[in-house]
Amino acid sequence: MWRVGDLMLFIRIVCSVLVSITVISSAISYGQGRQIQSGDRLTITVLDREDLTRTVVVRPDGTIQYPFMGSEDLNGFSLNRLRTVITLQLTRSLGSPPQAVDVLWAEDAFLDQIKVSVLGQVFSPGVIRVEQEAGIQGAITAAGGLLPIARQDGIKLRRLTNQGQAVLDVNLTRFLETGDLSYLPDLEDGDIIVVPGGEISSLVSIEGGVNSPGQYPVLPGAKVYDMIIQAGGFSDGARKHDVLLLKPSGRNDVKRKFTINISDLLRTGQEPLSPPVEPGDLIVVRKRFFTASRIVAISGVGSVLSILTLVLYRR
Questions:
Q1: Are the CB atoms for 277 and 204 separated by under 8 Å?
Q2: How far apart are CA 288 and CA 275, in angstroms?
Q3: In whole angstroms, what is the distance from residue 174 CA to residue 153 CA?
Q4: Which residue from 103, 110, 122 is spatially nearest to 52, judged by alpha carbons?
Q5: Which pLDDT band, with edges at 50, 70 and 90, does 20 fall under?
Q6: What is the Cα–Cα distance from 56 to 286, expressed in whole angstroms?
Q7: CA–CA separation, 39 vs 58, rounded Å?
Q8: What is the pLDDT of residues 95-148, one digit of tens each?
Q9: What is the per-residue pLDDT for 113?
Q10: Mean pLDDT calculated for residue range 54-83
Q11: Neighbours of 94 (CB within 10 A)
Q12: Burial (CB count <10 Å: 0-12, 13-18, 19+), residue 89
């Protein structure tokens, strides 16, 4: 026989269990029913693969910056569907399936994270949460990455201290060039990262030994020779082995210089190693002093000198 006290205790336990089950079921239903949309932050975890575990932000076009995901539009996806897609992409790219893949809403994975603001020229400016060890690069990545007009050498880190607000310089350009961590201050809770912008051309300038020098739009995946073809191809006397690709570095008028040997491409068909062409780049095709037309025009000189000049031109 149940005593009244024991019966009341049993009823309380049963009611508590039922309430807990209801709350958990509601939370699960919400998580499964919610669909991914632009601006969402997702935490992707791959077991035993720290390089593939990160928090990402869904960009305005529905894409995320994550290995092997390409330009997949995730708007309207559920977390389960995204888990399946990531698992399939990793399996195809790595040759074997990962041990386990999990995707959570970032607000459900805030353990051991700090809150910072990323403002200015990023895809999704605002307040974000990142692991402190992620640093400034991780915070910018969580904010969707840099816009094309972002100045990597002019980033400012604002921090409130006991002495007032401190402003620290961040030079991402120099860090990428040198690997010197002193260009990237450590990140602390409450920091504000401000990414400035600058003007950038949407075209590529092509000068020198081409038939139609000028400015041209960049085609997706275009290389230097593709842009030269747009400019009418090489002109007479072009030094095809000595083409310059100048890329703005963000530091005033300083440019990074790359020398491209197009002669090897034309001879072997193998694409030379070179960075992709981007808006704002300058391509300079150097020209020989002696050209075929100039040699023909030479008059009043001996045949031997003309032949030697022609040989030099051919080389």
A1: yes
A2: 25
A3: 7
A4: 103
A5: very low
A6: 44
A7: 5
A8: 888 888 999 887 665 546 788 999 988 888 888 888 777 889 989 988 888 877
A9: 74
A10: 88
A11: 14
A12: middle
Does the domain formed by 115-199 have CATH 3.40.1180.10?
no
Domains 115-199 and 203-293 share a fold: yes
Q: Is the pLDDT of residue 261 over 80?
A: yes
- Quick one: pLDDT at residue 300? 47
CATH code assigned to 33-109: 3.30.1950.10
What CATH number should be reported for the domain whose range is 203-293? 3.10.560.10
Residues in the chain: 315
Q: Which one-letter DSSP state was computed for residue 250?
A: S
Joined tokens for residue 152: 């990597």
* Phi, psi dihedrals of residue 205, rounded to the nearest 5°: -90, 135
For the chain, the average pLDDT equals 79
Residue ranges of the domains in the chain?
Answer: 33-109, 115-199, 203-293
Residue type, 109: A
DSSP annotation of 107 reads G
DSSP code at position 275: P
More confident residue, 8 or 119: 119
3-state secondary structure 9-56: HHHHHHHHHHHHHHHHHHHHHHHHHCCCCCCCEEEEEECCCHHHCEEE
pTM of the model: 0.38
What is the C-alpha to C-alpha distance for residues 111 and 61, in angstroms, rounded to an integer?
29
